[in-house]
């Protein structure tokens, strides 16, 4: 009975619908089959055995082949089991190889020949056989189509997962190489300069044109400051060499602090922020990076010009991010920053637009999905 506990909510819904349909159709087929010239005993067996086969549909995912063979045997005399037997054929076609499906189809074809002899239908037996085989072929074909489609989707998912894993690994390796290079450069340049500062500060203690206490006090301060700078440098290098997952990442809540820092640096920024609600972390981080890159471009290409930023949205409607700034002297750069933003937006299924407006401003616009 472990199968019952492994069913998903969708499986429970599908199995319940299948069971109800099989039982309802069984009653209709039994009523129609009661008109056949057969004994009351066989008619009673038809009903009870057919209902029992409907009950076995709850276990069709666990034993599809076995139950399909039982269904074929019951179908030799039971009208009530007709739809349940078809569902079992469909289950085999979906979950078992083609060879097994052909085997089950053949067994049901044999049971159909026996059924025609036992039930002695008043209609033309040939028409009954043709109609039944047509239904068998349609059901088996449908099941094989569902099976092939599921296999195709699973193959595509596996390929996408592998491609994503390879891309993520390559990106992490590239970032690690870049961080190692930065750390090495900072150590070689800043470490050397700060070491010289420490040496000169030590020599200051021996100057003769100031009192010994003054020189010693100033030298001690410089020495302490240089030592602290070296400690800070080691901490920065340690962060740069840390694994990718351990580096702190900005969030949407850090956006006001980013704007305040830009204003303190002398950039006139007008911010409109209207995005209430719980925002997904990856969407908020992407919005932060877009605003950050937009401010960087504004300072680079139009220093001192005002920047207008609008960040608005709501769950279900998406998040819109727009930056505008006058750019009369804007020059073409390498475009790597905007290209990176486009890639960031694409990763969260968003889009980026940029270019000059009719008024001559430069406009950077992004739309990011925000699920309800």
From TrEMBL:
Reaction catalysed by this enzyme: ATP + protein L-histidine = ADP + protein N-phospho-L-histidine
SUPFAM superfamilies associated with the record: ATPase domain of HSP90 chaperone/DNA topoisomerase II/histidine kinase (SSF55874)
Entry superkingdom: Bacteria
Signal peptide stretch: none
Protein's name in the database: histidine kinase
EC number per UniProt: 2.7.13.3
Source taxonomy: Bacteria, Bacillati, Actinomycetota, Actinomycetes, Propionibacteriales
GO molecular function terms listed in the Swiss-Prot or TrEMBL record: ATP binding; phosphorelay sensor kinase activity; protein dimerization activity
PANTHER family: NITRATE/NITRITE SENSOR PROTEIN NARX-RELATED, NITRATE_NITRITE SENSOR PROTEIN NARQ
Keyword hit for Kinase: yes
Chain ranges of the Signal transduction histidine kinase subgroup 3 dimerisation and phosphoacceptor domain: 179-243
Keyword Nucleotide-binding attached: yes
């Amino acid at each position: 009975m472990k199968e019952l506990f492994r069913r998903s909510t969708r499986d429970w819904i599908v199995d319940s619908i299948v069971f109800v349909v099989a039982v309802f159709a069984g009653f209709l087929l039994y009523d129609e089959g009661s008109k056949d010239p057969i004994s009351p005993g066989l008619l009673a067996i038809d009903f009870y055995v057919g209902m029992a086969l409907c009950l076995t549909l709850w276990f069709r995912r666990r034993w599809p082949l076995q139950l399909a063979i039982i269904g074929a045997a019951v179908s030799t005399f039971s009208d009530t089991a007709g739809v349940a037997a078809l569902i079992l054929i469909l289950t085999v076609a979906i979950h078992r190889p083609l060879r097994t499906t052909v085997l089950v189809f053949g067994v049901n074809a044999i049971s159909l020949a026996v059924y025609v002899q036992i039930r002695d239908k008043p209609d033309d037996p040939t028409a009954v056989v043709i109609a039944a085989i047509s239904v068998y072929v349609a059901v088996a074909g449908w099941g094989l189509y569902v099976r092939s489609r599921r296999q195709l989707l699973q193959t595509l998912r596996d390929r996408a997962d592998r491609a994503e894993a390879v891309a993520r690994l390559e990106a992490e390796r590239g970032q690690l190489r870049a961080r190692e290079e930065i750390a090495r450069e900072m150590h070689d340049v800043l470490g050397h300069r700060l070491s010289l500062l420490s040496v000169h500060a030590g020599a200051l203690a021996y100057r003769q044109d100031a009192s010994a206490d003054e020189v010693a006090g100033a030298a001690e301060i410089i020495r302490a400051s240089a030592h602290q700078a070296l400690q800070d440098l080691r901490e920065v290098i340690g962060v740069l060499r840390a694994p990718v997952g351990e580096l702190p990442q900005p969030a949407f809540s850090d956006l006001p602090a980013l704007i305040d820092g830009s204003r303190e640096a002398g950039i006139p920024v007008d911010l409109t922020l209207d995005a209430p609600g719980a925002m997904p972390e990856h969407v908020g981080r992407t919005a932060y990076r877009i605003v950050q890159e937009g401010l960087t471009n504004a300072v680079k290409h139009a220093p001192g010009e005002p920047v207008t930023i609008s960040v608005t949205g709501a769950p279900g409607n998406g998040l819109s991010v727009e930056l505008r700034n006058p750019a009369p002297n804007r020059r073409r750069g390498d475009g790597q920053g905007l290209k990176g933003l486009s890639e960031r937006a694409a990763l969260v299924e968003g889009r980026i637009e940029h270019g000059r407006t009719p008024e001559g401003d430069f406009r950077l616009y992004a739309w990011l999905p925000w699920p309800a």
